[in-house]
């Protein structure tokens, strides 16, 4: 998709800022605290973008296949993986039409991609198709019902950013699907996007967790 291609070259620059680095750390810990070790190692990283989580999963010892709909993002992901001497497969592929066999993967992982998935249930159906029995599916995404959701839905972001194409979701939008297969769920990123740089800290994140909605949600299913 052209609108993702145009973001590719500057996508990782967000993580070089103090806020971006902190957000990345909080979201990563939330996801990996849920995505438990399990038998088998073949993992599908859905909406892998520039490969940040594909690389993290590969470093943990998983055999990783990353998919995305942006060739520009995938080119960067391939270069990053090559530079780190990691053997990761990357493909341009639509989440609604995964070119894999039934029960091919031991698990699926998707971070900051479902914001751009319109039909959540259809996408999850396809993901569950390619996951083996007892396999885990972890999805992390921006929480529509939060300060961060409000920011991305603001007039400025809707006019001037890639988020004009987003379909933001709440925790309830996920937990109504495959309800009997949900293992765990969690919110994180309680600090607001407007926070002063000097106030960014784990202590602040923990303090705000008592009365704020998390800006990022993670849900774990087991097939």
Characterise the protein shown here.
The chain has 223 residues and is an alpha/beta fold. The protein has a single domain (2-11, 21-31, 41-222), classed as Rossmann fold (3-Layer(aba) Sandwich). Helix content is 36%, strand content 22%. The chain is built from 10 helices and 7 strands. The protein has helices spanning 2-5, 8-11, 18-34, 52-59, 71-83, 120-130, 147-152, 155-160, 171-175, 202-208, and strands at 42-46, 63-68, 89-92, 105-111, 131-142, 182-188, 216-222. The chain has a 7-stranded mixed β-sheet with strand order 3-2-1-4-5-7-6. Helix 5 (71-83) links the parallel strand 2 (63-68) and strand 3 (89-92). The longest helix is centred in the first third of the chain and has 17 residues, at 18-34. The chain is globular and about 45 Å long.
Number of strands: 7
How would you spell out the order of helices and strands? HHHEHEHEEHEHHHEHE
Under CATH, the topology is which?
A: Rossmann fold
The spatial strand order of the largest sheet comes to: 3-2-1-4-5-7-6
- Approximate helicity band: 25-40%
SS summary, helix count? 10
Shape: globular
- Provide the domain count: 1
CATH architecture: 3-Layer(aba) Sandwich
* Spans of at least 5 consecutive residues with low confidence: none
Into which percentage range does the β-strand content fall?
15-25%
Q: Report the CATH C-level class.
A: Alpha Beta
What class, by secondary structure content?
alpha/beta
Biggest β-sheet description: 7 strands, mixed
- Residue-averaged pLDDT: 93
Q: For the record, what is the CATH homologous superfamily label?
A: Vaccinia Virus protein VP39
How far apart are the first and last residues' alpha carbons, in Å?
30 Å
Radius of gyration: 17 Å
């Amino acid at each position: 998709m052209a609108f993702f291609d145009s973001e590719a070259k500057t996508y990782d620059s967000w993580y070089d800022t103090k806020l971006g680095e902190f957000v990345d750390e909080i979201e990563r810990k939330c996801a990996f605290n849920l995505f438990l070790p399990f038998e088998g190692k073949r993992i599908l990283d859905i909406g892998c973008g520039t490969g940040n989580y594909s690389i993290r999963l590969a470093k943990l010892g998983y055999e990783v296949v990353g998919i995305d709909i942006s060739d520009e993002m995938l080119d960067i992901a391939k270069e990053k993986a090559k530079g780190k001497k990691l053997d990761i497969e990357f493909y341009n592929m639509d989440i609604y039409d995964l070119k894999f066999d039934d029960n091919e993967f031991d698990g699926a992982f998707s971070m900051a991609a479902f914001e751009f998935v319109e039909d959540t249930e259809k996408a999850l159906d396809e993901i569950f198709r390619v996951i083996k029995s007892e396999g885990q599916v972890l999805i992390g995404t921006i929480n529509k019902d939060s300060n961060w959701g409000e920011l991305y839905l603001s007039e400025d972001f809707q006019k001037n950013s890639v988020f004009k194409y987003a379909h933001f979701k709440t925790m309830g939008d996920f937990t109504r699907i495959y309800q009997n297969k949900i293992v765990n769920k969690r919110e994180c990123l309680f600090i607001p996007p407007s926070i002063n740089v000097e106030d960014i800290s784990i202590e602040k994140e923990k303090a705000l967790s008592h009365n704020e909605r998390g800006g990022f949600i993670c849900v774990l299913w087991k097939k």
